[in-house]
Structure formats: C-alpha cells, structure tokens
TrEMBL record:
It comes from the Eukaryota. It is a multi-pass membrane protein. It comes from Bos taurus (Bovine). SUPFAM superfamilies: Multidrug resistance efflux transporter EmrE. This is Solute carrier family 35 member C1. It is found in: Membrane. The chain crosses the membrane at residues 21-44, 64-88, 100-117, 155-172, 184-202, 223-245, 251-272. Its main location: membrane. Putative transporter. Residues 27-320 form the Sugar phosphate transporter domain. The keyword Membrane applies. InterPro entries: EmrE-like, Sugar_P_trans_dom, TPT_transporter. Residues 332-351 are annotated as: Disordered.
Length: 351
C-alpha cells in the first residue's frame, strides 16, 4: 500500500508496459471507479451532514473542523505504523515542527477558506447545482496566473473560459427561474473557486518547506486548520449549538461524521492514484465526467425536474472545462516538442 509517490517513474512506466493490456485496462478501470465512488459519496455524505432535514445540524464550521481533525489523526497514525512496521505502508515520518507550521500558515489560511466555502456552498445549494456553483475555478486559474505569475493565456483557452462563464450565468438564471436559487450558496461557490485557485498556486511555493511531500503538507495544513477553527467555533456560537444538538450522543451521528473525515482523507489518495495510473489530462477528463454523473444522480435521487436550459448550462460548464483541459494539454505538448533556442545555437556552433 503506497501512500506516497517515492518510486522511480521510469521504473513504473517500464513495469506498466510489461503488463498485459487487459490487466492494465482493468487496473485503470478499478482506480477510476474508486475515484468516482469516493468523490461522489463524499459530496452526498457532506450534504447530509450539512443540510439534512432529519439531522438538523446547523454547524458547518464544526463539521469541517472535525474532518480536518480526522485527517490529522489518520496521517499521524499511518506515520506511526510506517515507523513501527516498515514495509507495511509507504508514508513519511511526521513530527510537528512549529517552524514548519508557521511557514505553511499562509497556505493554511487559503486551505481553510477552500474547504469551508466548499462546505458552505454545499449547505445552501443542491447537489445538482453544486458543480455549476463552483465552476469558476478554471477562470480564476487563468486570472490569477496572469495577476500573480504574469503568465498569459492563449485565445482558445480564453474562449473555453468564456463558455464556462456563460454556463455559470445560465445556470444561475435557471436556478432563479425554478425558485431554487440561493445567492448565499452561489457566493460561497464563487469564493470556493477563488480559494481552490489560490491553493494550487501557493502550494507550489510552500512545498519546499515540507521537503516536497504532499502528505506532510496535508498534515500541517489540517493541523493548522484545527487550531484556527477553534476561535471561529466560539465566535459563531457553534459550540453552544452543538451542545444543544439532540443527537450529540448518537453513535450513528459520530459514525457519519467520522466517515466524512475518512472520505476527505481518501480523496487525496485516490486522486493521486488516478493520476499515477492514467495522466493529469485523463484525471481532469475523469473529473469532468464524474461531475456529470454526480449531477444526474442528484437529480434522480432528490426527484428534481430540470428544464432544458438548466441542463444546457451544465453541459456548457462541463464542455468548457473539458475543452480547456484539451487546449492546455495540446499547448504543453507543443511547448515540450519545440527545440530550445539555446540548444539550436549550440548545435549550429558545433557544425
């Protein structure tokens, strides 16, 4: 069970080539299925915890805090297991270093915004609209890459972003026409998209502080989040609401809460696993297809009736996201295939 990519990529590529096609296809199918099941289950479970009429728990910050706490405990447990029983799991050694925690703190603030706004968006909007509500991540990626990193974007990539924006506004319009629009949830969705983009940018800057280990970063991010959430729980009165919660002593409630934390931890692992067995481009395509399946499942499960234009907005968002991934993939491939100017100069000098 490898929980951290420390093996040689070239060795993995050679090993995968030696495997029969049927076996490789089966492995990929299983990994993609695992990613879909984990991701979709996490969304539906979080919706239950955040906005279930039967549960009636109005403490979104506490739900997020508890999921971070579960992740910290799982990381520490796996680290201890790897130390005590070498070879059982491939997981880095984790020791809380306050200096490293301070270095990661700016990213942790963005991370808190990302997971909190995600959950708040899910609390106020339906699962069917959840994908459209958080669909502006790609647009913010392009915008922030230009503002913060001074990276320009091609015309065709900008064109795909315009399709996403059009799908987002059409979705908002159709939710309003059906009387199910929550401006609060939509705002939280936009803020979540912004934080997801910022998180991706600042993760690259912070990774050297944790020796490039994603699992160490996960540990420190969630540990910092647990500390920073405490004053929020007090200020927003969620601790009082939790103490008055009728099902506080219910084993079923805590089992669902813990399961939500397990899914939150597992999604990081299965995402990495899917990229390892396929590619970043295939992972993005899989994520888009998963979002489509999730939307259809939500409409069927909650027995909702949606208009043609509502479905059109979803197709615009999903199609625009897929097209952006395809365009960027082609541009990156073209850049890699182009000879470096200095290499050309060197070869001309040798001739």
């Amino acid at each position: 069970m490898a929980l951290m990519g420390t093996s040689d990529p070239s060795g993995e590529a050679e090993a995968s080539q030696e495997k029969p096609f049927v076996l490789r296809a089966l492995q990929i199918a299983l990994v993609v299925s695992l990613y879909w099941v984990t991701s979709i289950s996490m969304v539906f479970l979080n919706k239950y915890l955040l906005d279930s009429p039967s549960l009636r728990l109005d403490t979104p910050i506490f739900v997020t805090f508890y999921q971070c706490l579960v992740t910290v405990l799982l990381c520490k447990g796996l680290s201890s297991l790897a130390t005590c029983c070498p070879g059982t799991v491939d997981f880095p050694a984790l020791h809380l270093d306050l200096k490293v925690a301070r270095s990661v703190l700016p990213l942790s603030v963005v991370f808190i915004g990302m997971i909190t706004f995600n959950n708040l968006c899910l609390k106020y909007v339906g699962v069917a609209f959840y994908n459209v509500g958080r669909s502006l991540t790609t647009v913010f990626n392009v915008l922030l890459s230009y503002l913060l990193l001074k990276q320009t974007t091609s015309f065709y990539a900008l064109l795909t972003c315009s399709v996403i924006i059009g799908g987002f506004w059409l979705g908002v319009d159709q939710e309003g026409a059906e009387g199910t629009l929550s401006w609060t949830g939509t705002l939280f969705g936009v803020l979540a998209s912004l934080c997801v983009s910022l998180n991706a940018i600042y993760t690259k800057k912070v990774l050297p502080a944790v020796d490039g280990s994603i699992w160490r970063l996960t540990f420190y991010n969630n540990a910092n989040a647990c500390v920073l959430f405490l004053p929020l729980l007090l200020a927003l009165g969620e601790l009082r609401a939790l103490l008055a919660f009728p099902q506080l002593g219910s084993a079923h409630f805590w089992a669902m809460m813990t399961l939500g934390g397990l899914f939150g931890f597992a999604i990081g692992y299965v995402t990495g696993l899917q990229i390892k067995f396929t590619s970043p481009l295939t992972h993005n395509v899989s994520g888009t297809a998963k979002a489509c399946a999730q939307t259809v499942l939500a409409v069927l499960y909650y027995e909702e009736a949606k208009s043609f234009l509502w479905w059109t907005s979803n197709m615009m968002v999903l199609g625009g996201s897929s097209a952006y991934t395809w365009v960027r993939g082609r541009e990156m491939k073209k850049t890699q295939e182009e000879p470096h100017p200095r290499e050309n100069e060197k070869s001309n000098m040798e001739v």
